[in-house]
Design brief:
Blueprint (H helix, E strand, L loop, with lengths): L4 E14 L2 E14 L3 E5 L6 H8 L7 E6 L2 E2 L5 H11 E5 L10 H11 L6 H11 L15 H13 L5 E5 L7 H16 L4 E4 L3 H4 L4 E6 L2 E7 L8
Parallel strand pairs: 3-8, 3-9, 6-7, 7-8
Antiparallel strand pairs: 1-2, 1-4, 4-5, 9-10
């Protein structure tokens, strides 16, 4: 694993103003993630993990503190700059796959290149990304012709196609059975083995056990940062 820092948070806070006062969703969160790490972000409902995920994904900005992405302070960027970061440097994987039903797997994978203005050679790159997730033969199928596990593999290929700084996966196995969940987590581990940084947001401990590191949030604060041997390595 590289010692290059991909993500660094320093004293991150997020406060929401409500009719009854203020809600402190994040309280001084600090940590760093190195290139090639696979990290689980866990916490109970109301812990702040969704707020933190939105900031990491450049969907929101912190109230105070810094978010450095590969050394660049993205904490105070405006909407247009954050949209640029999202489209070019962050690969998103969602629980519900978020594939466009009328488009083929190939076209779904190619979408991030269209949005980022990086469409040159798009179909070739999309084909390679599908090959990397074991679906090179399914590129012309639409989502309703694919299983849930295959749809999530298409979503992972879409997340990878722009060579992002890191992949942010939000409950990526939440709609899958246990066997398919293991296949998806094995795929994420293979990405890590290639030096790709992966953050998995989950409330399931058995999913977090696939990661070599677990960050635990509670009441907006980071209360745990545990490194351990990932699940399949102890079998």
């Amino acid at each position: 694993m590289s010692t290059e820092t991909v993500i660094r948070l320093e004293g991150l806070t997020k406060t929401y103003k409500t009719g009854g006062g203020e809600v402190h969703a994040l309280r001084g969160v600090s940590f760093a993630v190195q290139r090639g790490e696979m990290v689980a972000l866990m916490g109970p409902s109301g812990s702040g993990k969704s707020t933190l995920m939105n900031i990491l994904g450049c969907l929101d900005r912190p109230t105070s503190g810094q978010y450095l992405l590969e050394g660049e302070d993205v904490s105070r960027l405006g909407d247009a700059e954050r949209a640029r970061i999202r489209s070019k440097r962050i690969g998103f994987v969602f629980q519900s796959f978020n594939l466009l039903s009328r488009m083929s797997a190939m076209d779904n994978v190619a979408l991030p290149m269209v949005y980022s203005g990086n469409g040159h050679g798009g179909r070739e790159r999309a084909a390679r990304a599908l090959q990397e997730v074991g679906l090179g033969h399914r590129g012309h199928h639409r989502p309703n012709q694919l299983s849930g596990g295959e749809q999530q593999r298409v979503a992972i290929a879409r997340a990878l196609v722009n060579n992002p700084s890191f992949v942010l996966a939000d409950e990526p196995t939440g709609n899958l059975d246990s066997r398919t969940s293991e296949e998806i987590m094995t795929l994420f581990r293979s990405l890590q083995d290639r030096g790709i940084t992966v953050l998995v947001v989950t409330h399931e401990r058995d999913i977090a056990d696939w990661c070599g590191r677990m960050l635990l949030l509670r009441d907006g604060a980071l209360v745990g940062d545990e490194r351990r041997v990932p699940r399949e390595l102890v079998r």
